[in-house]
Amino acid sequence: MAEILRYEHVDITYNGFKAIKDVSFSVSEGEILGIVGESGSGKSTLIKAAMGLLGDSGLVTRGDIWYKGKNLPDLSASELCKLNGPELGMIFQYAGSSFCPIRTVGAQLYESMTEHKHISKEDFRILAFALLEKIGLRILDSYPFELSGGMQQRVGIAAAMLLNPSVLLADEPTSALDVSVQKQVVEEMLLVRRTFGTSIVLVTHNIGVIGAMADRVLVMRNGEMVEYGETRQVLEDPKEEYTKLLMSAVPRLRRV
Amino acid sequence: MNEPTVRIQKIRKDTVKTRLIVFGALALLLLVCSIFSEHLTPYDPYLQDLTNVKAPPSAEHLFGTDRYGRDMLSRVIVGSRTSIYSTLLLVGIVTALGTMIGVFCGWHGKWIDTVLMRISDMFLAFPGLVFAMAVAGVLGGGLQNAIIALVAISWPKYARIARSQTLAQKETSYLKAARLSGSGTWKIIFKHILPNIIGPILVTSMLDIGTMMMELAGLSFLGLGAKPPTAEWGSMMSDTRSLLSTVPWVTLAPGFAIFVSVMIFNLLGDTIRDYADPKSRGR
Amino acid sequence: MEPILKVENLTRVFTRKGQPDFTAVDHIGFELYPGECLGLIGESGSGKTTVVNMITRLLDATEGSIVLDGEDITQMSGKELRRAYRKMQMVFQTPTDSFDPRCTLGDGIGESLRNLGMSRAETKQEVARLLTECGLTPEFADRYPHQVSGGQCQRASIARALAVKPKLLICDEATSSLDVTIQKEIIALLNELRWQRGAKLSILFICHDIALVQQFCNRVLVLYKGRIVEQGVPDEIIRNPKDAYTKRLIESVL
């Protein structure tokens, strides 16, 4: 399958402090890549770099991030803005907090969509309704506070999917959720991939979520790549000492 | 394969520290000036020289002279003592009183909290300076009464800040841990709550120095503060306001002094706020 | 055997103006025996934290009783309550937040000892001993919470809890904010303490990770919407969950 996103020897520096050292990986069309690591490993920084969300103090000081022939770190802010949404979608840990509390979900989804393309309210409703129907949500006329944490997270995914991006970047999308809700969100992301063929880059510290979703895994530690390979191989037969340590530390449910 | 691109990062310097040093030094200079004000005056500020009244600013008299021929520069310098010290005293009293009430309300809660907070609402419901004028009017003029009047209208703000901060502190794990460690109320308040809430309160009081100086000058201007011939910036302006159209420097000199010191303390307050809040740093 | 902690009919109703009353904890009862480690599992909003706050008396119970080591502490306050805290200590969820940012770790660990009237020098020695017992060095007493890692801070927090030699240790999500490798170390430390102290230390382990509860606890209570819906040995419950919620919880584990 064709490559869609490729990191080449990426270094990222925050005010002179090197947070990411020489990371390379690639994502193919329809692939789910899991990036796993403990706090301070730089896993979130990696995907923020693609979206240009490193802030004033962060910069990709070396290396390239290729997306459809464009080198993302070299794009201007306005060019990146055009890509973010229709090409690269993002899901955050607390999707609920990115909604305005006093307007309906539908109105806000419409607004975010018209930022990128002209569409009438009627067409939007048809489109949005069809999409939300596919993922089993009927919430266009609800207010964000009427939704539970898991629902808000799913609406966040729906919001990202409305513009039909080729790559979905998800930063700890299930970490604030209870396990039963976490499972729903995981299933929803898998459904999105099945339905739209979207590639997903999933950043999480939860090995269980990686195991349930990812095709390939990248293990990060202190800003460096530790291991990169097929999910099954990395989780079940890790080659590196650190990965072994990490896997042995995860409490696993013994079902007798 | 291509060589990876290299980009140079410009590292921005944190300016807060520099600002803190500059404004801190200016404020300190102002304080030192007011302490040694008597030794810094070129002329005796109370010496009348009727041969040289209403002289415009010149090399001899930088700010000119007033209608009794007194040197304006000397009077402004001497006035700094009354103005700055009474302001600092006022801010100190208000901060201490308001914080005490606020922490007590926040910690104790229940009916005492309700009663004290409704009282503070009552104070907040009056337009501040008008209320202070009424209080100062009842108590009679004089710097001391002006300070009492301003304390009366200003404490609720500090009580509210201290109360909300205390309520937030009550929810923290470390306060729960302190309670589980068997520490009593007073120990918890003085060892854990006060040190953790004093930062934002001090910032507020720094920012208030300017306002308080203005309000004190305002009361003096209205004749409710310092009495002439005591050199105080507000009363100096009030004394001379009838001369504004003919000899403007007599009014403008103390006005300028108020402007500069209010500015310095406000900027210092802003800087301390930025310094105390790591989130606003580096912008 | 006498239970170290006995909770009966414990209820907490939150009343707010203009809103219907909300029952966060609804008539729950359980016993914790000496040397036992009891897990309390439930999702967010299930009332776990309310239960803990009531047992530690940081929150008043609406109804019911809490008996700690044969003493009814439900209505205690002031001096009496402070004496009860010598038998019961707690380890909090976010280690860094559980120490006063303006005091050193040593101050925090020694606070209860100083309150018991121990001299400064003796306290210092005891703090050093506690830190060593929890896998740190005595030098950590002079550090501030933001100067140490989360795992080190949680070790210090366990040291603080052990200072008064409590009979009951409450761990409120004590490992959930930590990385898995650190979580493993902290669990190992707790296991060591259990093994050393035997019947002298009982643990109430609040947690949302059923796999961790299975590893660590002798018995588990499943809390759902303020009620205990199921209780028993973790292996039993996981193999054969009776309640619909417990089933869903176990199925959701990835």
CATH architecture of the largest domain in chain C: 3-Layer(aba) Sandwich
- Give a short account of the largest sheet of chain B: none
Largest sheet of chain C: 6 strands, mixed
Give the SSE string of chain C: EEEHEEHEHHHEHEHEEHH
Largest interface: A-C, 28 and 26 residues
Shape of chain C: globular
Looking at CATH, the homologous superfamily of chain B is: MetI-like
Instruction: Report the end-to-end length of chain B measured between terminal Cα atoms.
Output: 39 Å
In total, the number of domains of chain B comes to: 1
Q: Write down the domain tally of chain C.
A: 2
CATH class of chain B: Mainly Alpha
Structural class of chain B: mainly alpha
Account of the 3D structure:
The complex is a heterotrimer of chains A (256), B (283) and C (254). Chain A is an alpha/beta fold and 256 residues long. Chain A has a domain at 3-94 and 169-249: P-loop containing nucleotide triphosphate hydrolases (Rossmann fold). Chain A contains nine helices and ten strands. Chain A has helices spanning 43-51, 77-83, 105-114, 121-134, 149-162, 179-196, 207-213, 231-236, 241-249, and strands at 3-14, 17-28, 32-36, 58-67, 70-71, 88-91, 167-171, 199-204, 216-221, 224-230. Chain A has a six-stranded mixed sheet, sandwiched between helices. Chain A has a four-stranded antiparallel sheet with strand order 2-1-4-5, with helices on one face. In chain A, helix 3 packs across helix 4 (121-134) and helix 5 (149-162) packs parallel to helix 6 (179-196). By secondary structure, chain B is mainly α. The model of chain B has no long low-confidence stretch (mean pLDDT 81). Chain B has a single domain, classed as MetI-like fold, CATH 1.10.3720. Chain B is flat and about 75 Å long. Chain C has 254 residues and is α/β, with parallel strands linked by helices. Chain C folds into two domains: 5-87 and 166-252, Rossmann fold (3-Layer(aba) Sandwich); 102-165, no CATH class. Chain C is 37% helix and 26% strand. Chain C has a six-stranded mixed sheet with strand order 6-7-8-3-9-10, sandwiched between helices. Chain C is globular. The model of chain C has no long low-confidence stretch (mean pLDDT 90). Classes of the chains: A alpha/beta (256), B mainly alpha (283), C alpha/beta (254).
